[in-house]
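TICKET: design request
STATUS: open
ATTACHED STRUCTURE:
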């Protein structure tokens, strides 16, 4: 196979912009050509316009599953692969084996368990009429901003006047053990809230600023600091048989 097309279903606009600005160019150099679209939330029955981005509250997983499967059906060519980029924080409770996963104490084992449950559920739905589909689900520990906490100093590219706040964020990451993927997933302690506590503007800026800061940090630094993210990238760059 000379090249791979990779379709990524993402949580919302922040992740979609991250894929297009930073992840896709990185993978493209390795002959994996990625695109992304937000999860389908609703469709206008009159115009057929699709609203994408975010997770619905009611029967959220059903909508996610249908959207992923519809993409697989639409483009199940031999060079296509499929993956996801969903935040573990606030993941819908109707995800496959969610309750069982919550009983797993190790956060890395928990998220891998959920990813495997998602893969099994999707592949079971398409077995019999679509064969040989490569689906590699990914759930971000604990949310997109963990990637920013891989090098929070780079927040200075957008918030030059927040030196003290950025130093506080850096100190917080170190105090929490230096692993941004294990920053607490409670509402007031999740990665984005940790940033917002020090830089309130980020709450309104995150869709635009988050991907810009991530671009400044770079994929290599994220891979170095975020073990689960690195595991995902290792699998993705291997799709076309190009060294990582």
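STATUS: resolved
RESOLUTION: sequence designed for all positions
ATTACHED SEQUENCE:
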């Amino acid at each position: 196979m000379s090249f791979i097309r990779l379709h990524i279903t993402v949580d919302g606009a922040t992740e979609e912009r991250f894929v297009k600005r930073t992840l896709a160019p990185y993978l493209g150099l390795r002959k994996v050509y990625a695109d992304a679209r937000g999860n389908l939330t609703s469709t206008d029955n009159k115009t057929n316009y699709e609203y994408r981005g975010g997770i619905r509250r009611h029967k959220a997983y059903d909508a996610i599953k249908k959207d992923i499967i519809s993409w697989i059906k639409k483009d199940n060519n031999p060079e296509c692969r499929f993956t996801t980029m969903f935040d573990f924080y606030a993941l819908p409770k109707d995800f496959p084996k969610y309750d069982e996963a919550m009983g797993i104490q190790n956060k890395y084992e928990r998220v891998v368990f959920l990813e495997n449950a998602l893969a099994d559920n999707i592949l079971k739905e398409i077995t019999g009429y679509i064969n040989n589909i490569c689906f590699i689900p990914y759930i971000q520990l604990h949310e997109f901003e963990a990637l920013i906490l891989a090098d929070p100093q780079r927040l200075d590219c957008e918030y030059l006047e927040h030196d003290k706040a950025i130093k506080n964020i850096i100190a917080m990451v170190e105090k929490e053990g230096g692993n941004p993927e294990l920053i607490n997933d409670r509402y007031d302690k999740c990665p984005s809230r940790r940033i917002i506590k020090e830089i309130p503007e980020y709450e309104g800026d995150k869709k635009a600023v988050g991907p810009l800061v991530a671009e400044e940090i770079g994929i290599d630094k994220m891979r170095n600091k975020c073990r689960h993210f690195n595991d995902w990238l290792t699998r993705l760059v291997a799709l076309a048989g190009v060294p990582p």
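CLOSING REMARK: The chain has two domains: 4-141+226-240, 145-221. The chain has a mean pLDDT of 90.
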